[in-house]
Design goal:
By secondary structure, the chain is α+β, with helices and mostly antiparallel strands. It is built from 7 helices and 19 strands. The chain has a 9-stranded mixed sheet, with helices on one face. It has a 4-stranded antiparallel sheet with strand order 2-10-11-18, with no helix packed on it. Strands 1-13-14 form a 3-stranded antiparallel sheet, with no helix packed on it. Helix 1 packs antiparallel against helix 6. The termini are far apart. Bound molecules: adenosine-5'-diphosphate and magnesium ion. Adenosine-5'-diphosphate binds next to helix 7. Magnesium ion binds next to strand 12 and helix 7.
């Protein structure tokens, strides 16, 4: 039987207190549904009185961006752009323009492994409410969907965007949540909030400290949703995001296919269980976690050797579990004692 399945959306666990702290202070935190997932804002206990206004501002940002970026809202810029594919350029808001231009940057940086025009393949494989193929699709059919993708055919003008071929479709599922977190984060910081953690479906960015050391985020065990493999400390405004094969997938002929698709082959990525990325911005962590999931450990590590502020944990889809981390991740990641022997630091790529 073919079914689209969704497991729990929570892929990061907020850990509020370092084990060494003497007084347990619990951040003030609230979560609510937003952008098809859950959002949350956390503040140090001492700033709890600001929580209401921060949540109001964050919710307004996420609602506004959903209205412009969602493929599901027929009035959004992205839905309008997709309907006009192959016909004409459409005017877009400045937020959409920035989002599309960042998407094209990450497409170029990752050699097209992150591709914002992945829409036709996402639908072809039965994601986004489309019908799941009853049996494994024929190669020619995959190739036909693949021919409708290609970020080089997404053209940006001053305040307009154009998809050059009919049937093309932009899908920002791999980057929009990170972008939204950055917009929200900047807005809160501009309003004198200096200690905050913003989370949108596991895309997290934090400023300051909750009161006893840096903000800490648990990294989910990819094979066991009830446990974590370790904790990441976020320092100096850093962001973290995870792409995994366990949250959204389709089952075809009894085999699971994850929702991240390799734009080189048109096939859902096999072989990776999860990639966690720490980066200076949430948009980078989001885009690169998706891209590195496609690229795999070796190629992904080579890409990060050229980006000194971005670090990753790669978990391949095999047991026993191994946590392969880039050198810069060592200072940020503490494995749980049970996984201390599973960590391997990847050698720097020449
Ligand atoms: P999540 O959205 O579950 O947090 P990701 O950030 O990794 O996970 O995004 C996955 C989504 O990105 C997919 O559901 C799809 O919408 C889109 N996507 C899939 N493959 C790619 C790709 N190669 N490049 C860009 N976006 C992709
Ligand atoms: Mg992503």
């Amino acid at each position: 039987m073919n079914r689209t399945m969704a497991a729990t959306r929570v892929c990061a666990l907020l850990l509020c207190c370092a084990t060494a702290c003497t007084r347990r202070s619990k951040p003030a935190e609230r979560s609510w549904p937003a952008m098809g997932t859950f959002a949350s804002v956390a503040l140090p206990e001492a700033d709890a009185e600001k929580l209401d206004s921060c949540v109001t501002q964050a919710a307004a940002v996420f609602n506004e961006l959903t209205g412009t970026l969602s493929v599901f809202d027929p009035k959004s810029d992205i839905a309008t752009l997709n309907r006009a594919a192959g016909k004409k350029p459409v005017p877009v808001s400045s937020a959409t323009h920035t989002m599309l231009s960042l998407s094209l940057e990450y497409a170029a940086v990752t050699g097209g492994c992150f591709d914002p025009t992945i829409g036709p393949l996402v639908r072809f494989w039965g994601f986004h409410h489309a019908e799941v193929p009853a049996s494994l699709p024929a190669r020619d059919d995959v190739q036909a969907a693949l021919r409708l993708c290609g970020y080089r055919h997404l053209k940006l003008k001053r305040s307009a965007a154009f998809l050059e071929q009919p049937g093309m479709a932009v899908d920002l599922g791999g980057i929009a949540k990170g972008f939204a977190v950055d917009v929200c984060f900047d807005k809160l910081l501009a309003r004198n909030v200096s200690r905050v953690m913003v989370n949108l479906g596991g895309n997290i960015r934090a400023a300051g400290s909750p009161g006893n050391g840096p903000w800490r985020v648990g990294v989910r065990h990819p094979f066991d949703g009830d446990s974590i493999v370790g904790v990441i400390r976020l320092i100096g405004g850093q962001a973290v995001a995870t792409s995994g094969n366990y949250e959204r997938f389709v089952t075809i002929e009894g085999k699971r296919y994850a929702h991240i698709i390799d734009p080189r082959s048109g096939m859902p990525v096999q072989g990776m269980a999860a990639v966690t990325v720490v980066a200076p911005t949430a948009v980078e962590a989001d885009a690169l976690s998706t891209a590195l999931f496609v690229m795999g450990t070796r190629q992904g590590c080579a890409l990060l050797s050229r980006r000194s502020e971005t670090h990753a944990i790669f978990v391949e889809d095999q047991k026993p579990l191994h946590l392969r981390i880039t050198p810069g991740m060592q200072a940020l990641f503490t494995p749980e004692p049970a996984f201390a022997h599973s960590v391997r630091v990847l050698p720097p790529t020449p």
